[in-house]
Amino acid sequence: MNGAQSLIQTLVNGRVDVCFTNPGTSEMHFVAAVDKVEGMRTVLCLFEGVCSGAADGYSRMTGRPASTLLHLGPGLGNALANVHNTRRAHVPLINIVGEHARHHLEHNAPLTTDIEAIAWPVSDWVRTIGDPMTVAEDAADAIAAAQQPPGQVATLILPGDCAWNESSAPAPGPAVSRPPAVEDTQIRQIADVLRRGEPCVLLMAGPGLLESSLHSAGRIADVTGARLFSDRPIQRWQRGAGRVPIQRIPYPVKDAVAALDGTTHMILVGTVPPVAFFGYPNTPSLLAPDSCQFHTLATLEEDIPAALAMLADELTAPPEPSTLSKLNRPDLPTGELIPDKIWATIAALMPEEAILTNEAITSAAGYDRYMDGGPPHDMLTLNGGSIGEGLPLTLGASIACPDRKVINAQADGSAMYTVQTLWSLAREKCDTVTVLFNNRAYRILQGEMLKVEADGGGSKSQAMLDLGNPVIDWVHIAQGMGVNAWRATTAEEFNTQFAAAVQTPGPHLIDAVI
Amino acid sequence: MNGAQSLIQTLVNGRVDVCFTNPGTSEMHFVAAVDKVEGMRTVLCLFEGVCSGAADGYSRMTGRPASTLLHLGPGLGNALANVHNTRRAHVPLINIVGEHARHHLEHNAPLTTDIEAIAWPVSDWVRTIGDPMTVAEDAADAIAAAQQPPGQVATLILPGDCAWNESSAPAPGPAVSRPPAVEDTQIRQIADVLRRGEPCVLLMAGPGLLESSLHSAGRIADVTGARLFSDRPIQRWQRGAGRVPIQRIPYPVKDAVAALDGTTHMILVGTVPPVAFFGYPNTPSLLAPDSCQFHTLATLEEDIPAALAMLADELTAPPEPSTLSKLNRPDLPTGELIPDKIWATIAALMPEEAILTNEAITSAAGYDRYMDGGPPHDMLTLNGGSIGEGLPLTLGASIACPDRKVINAQADGSAMYTVQTLWSLAREKCDTVTVLFNNRAYRILQGEMLKVEADGGGSKSQAMLDLGNPVIDWVHIAQGMGVNAWRATTAEEFNTQFAAAVQTPGPHLIDAVI
């Protein structure tokens, strides 16, 4: 058994059985080994940022790490932005990065780079395999590192000769570390804070947005009056009918500050004191009032759903929360197509238990307006702020959950970064619909220009925020990569197309001209 | 004058007057300043890898650095592969990377990364601006670093508040360092080696492939019998009718070894002893015979054209080389479309002084077959081995030389990495024609699988090298981004389309189905 085979068998033993791949020469033995070892599914991507973003989506929906296969340092570079996003989502990921054969490294061939140096800024764990006989052990360590609660990025660098030479037997999958429970004393201290009756916010992130966590948070709010907020980055929000509704901290700093105004205590659940996405002139970085006191119920490394349930019980809250969202699908809109109507249609027609990958950015407000009344669903956003993850998250979520429709609410500017994803969606026959909010601009930057107080009204400046010259024809692009596509210019057209997309398996894209 | 304005004025003072941009919030003051300062041309790109690859193409054709504008660490990550390629091409590049305002950094907002750590593996010089008052000085240092012979990658990190706060006056452009001349004693030593009449190769790279260098090399070959080779990475090869023809070291290791067999002395001109691109089992990494002695005529840091001229004179070679390529345009081919015929058509119809960006990879053999007999032209390849630079090089070369037709010989798999370039070509109305060699495969990897001796015939392995499921419709993709496009399935169709593309200004793409 060669090193590549030992590596793949060890990954499969550790239940790491999906790999998003974009290989090159140095990874050919890994590629060949996929047919020699049972149980590894490979998903070919035509750009490495698709691999890493898809792995993020997969891990969020399964709780298990996906792997990527990347070609040397530059391939890791291409994946880097979405590795960053994955790391900020605090989910497990294993990058397998091919490296030159050890005897070839000293010759500084054109593709030679310091792969470890490229990996460290976006990884929690990095190791270069030093000997073919340690491949299995190194792979098992990578799995263990990735699964370290709440989930880490592990980058394992595989020299070509460590892949092709004879290796040792595969290792068993390492034990999965469970997140530890929060101490009772901590629960009681938080309960004491909440019992004071002072203005309090529970700020939730990570697994704090799963249905069971929200259920407990609703019970806590019922007996304490605490307000429930989610942090801005959303790992996986179980929302819609039958779930406890909570608010999301607004993106504009002044709105966020206003929303949190008067808060005396903030109970942190899987997060830290909330901060602005960017620093602006004459604007605070911290969003909570200066006088606010922070109390951590549970960190991301701890068992968040259990901590919330313990806290609700400690507060002797009734077993069921008083407020659950009710199914309230809007009527189908008519007339001019605007983002709000698109969201109304999505809420009206979306199937139960859909997954919604949301990179709609400036077109996303309608999500909050309608989706508590939509059917139960999971919503994912990018967590590291680097746009271009909406399409890859869609691919990964669909590979993870092939029986669930994945709806991708996608802005045009961000779609372009990883547009190659469309081809993988077609190849894998993913059951997805991308709603492309086509506003022909980096619309968010038009707003940010004002917020940073820049005098950016000049023609050259404005041209740098404009995607309308030439207009991008998303129908052509999607069809060019094998994805069924329509263009909608009215609400009626969008309704018809979205209904068809929901009812027809396979990947679809609607170019919604807004 | 704020920091952004001082920065841009300093760049313009240093003749860095083109910026390939993909900005975000932290770069908005830079964007606004482009309208406040005269002389900076901005070219919007929809993905950062387009920015860095285009800057490489621009620098190769002008000898002056282009700049990029990138959004924080992940934006630099997206640019990284083509920054690596630029660095390996040894041409100047200045990356301007936005960073959070200094007061905001400590809050670890989602987009926070260690930008310097991401930059160092692909940069020769990195600096984070520490104070708005030093922006001009830092920018001048970046220009000087980039222009350090032969050309370096300088990455300058600009915190938002250093862009928006009041700054000092712009700095003058630093003096351009000229590459130093090679010592006479060195020239005489090399001449002595050549006079021995032993089997000798001149291996040329960097400016060694410019017309004047080749002219001198031809003179040297005439009087010494030395054979002339180019290294595999090509910065800028001035080839075609009227130039001295030389060979390129073959890519397959066994062919390269055979080509260099029997060489007793290798004279290195802007390069180092040649190495294989990858390490393979049972295959040498070094391409020259073990007994070959290496002698460096000039390093990339030195004045290569002058050194070659001095050497030719030292050898009292006649002033004109005996062998110059003659214009020998082939007949237009007919029938089934294969790569060789495509190259014949290009050689038959290409205008004089075209620029040829060559990322045709496995379809590139016809270039060597026909192009010594083609009209004089400049040919560029990627230098760092990370595919996905052909389209960006085309954009950058066209921005640098708007009066010259740029012909992009482009493989399909590598085109997809930076497919967003097509939009910028349309936006800038570049006079280019992309010949898309569409073989529906990572064809090179099918060959590499054999070379690494992997047993990769299994169906899952082969599927990872196949781009035919679904077939990519390049006409649709190009049209979707505003580029005129045709599909050719016969040589006659290709002839007609290529002739039209050459005669009609503006960007074109021909999907050549081979």
Which characteristics define this entry?
homodimer, 514 residues, alpha/beta, seven-stranded mixed β-sheet, globular
Verbal overview:
Two copies of one chain form a homodimer. With 514 residues, the first copy, chain A, is an alpha/beta fold. Chain A contains 21 helices and 18 strands. In chain A, the strands form three sheets. In chain A, strands 9-14-13-15-16-18-17 form a seven-stranded mixed β-sheet, sandwiched between helices. In chain A, strands 2-1-3-4-6-5 form a six-stranded parallel β-sheet, with helices on both faces. In chain A, strands 10-8-7-11-12 form a five-stranded parallel β-sheet. Chains A and B meet through helix 2, helix 4, helix 5, helix 8 and helix 16 of A and helix 2, helix 4, helix 5, helix 8 and helix 16 of B.
Instruction: Please give the largest β-sheet of chain A.
Output: 7 strands, mixed
The coarse overall form of chain A would be globular
Number of strands of chain A: 18
Distance between the termini of chain A: 56 Å
Q: Main interface pair?
A: A-B, 106 and 106 residues
Tell me, rounded to a whole number, the average pLDDT of chain A: 97
Radius of gyration of chain A: 24 Å
Topology:
2 copies of one chain form a homodimer.
Chain A: H1 3-13, E1 18-21, H2 28-33, E2 41-44, H3 48-62, E3 66-71, H4 72-89, E4 93-99, H5 102-105, H6 115-119, E5 125-128, H7 135-147, E6 153-159, H8 160-164, H9 184-195, E7 200-204, H10 211-224, E8 227-230, E9 237-239, E10 247-248, H11 253-260, E11 265-269, E12 293-298, H12 304-314, H13 339-349, E13 354-359, H14 365-370, E14 377-380, H15 390-400, E15 406-411, H16 412-417, H17 421-427, E16 432-438, H18 443-451, H19 459-463, H20 474-480, E17 484-488, H21 491-503, E18 508-513
Parallel strand pairs in A: 1-2, 1-3, 3-4, 4-6, 5-6, 7-8, 7-11, 8-10, 11-12, 13-14, 13-15, 15-16, 16-18, 17-18
Antiparallel strand pairs in A: 9-14
Helix pairs in contact in A: 1-7, 3-4, 3-15, 9-12, 10-12, 13-21
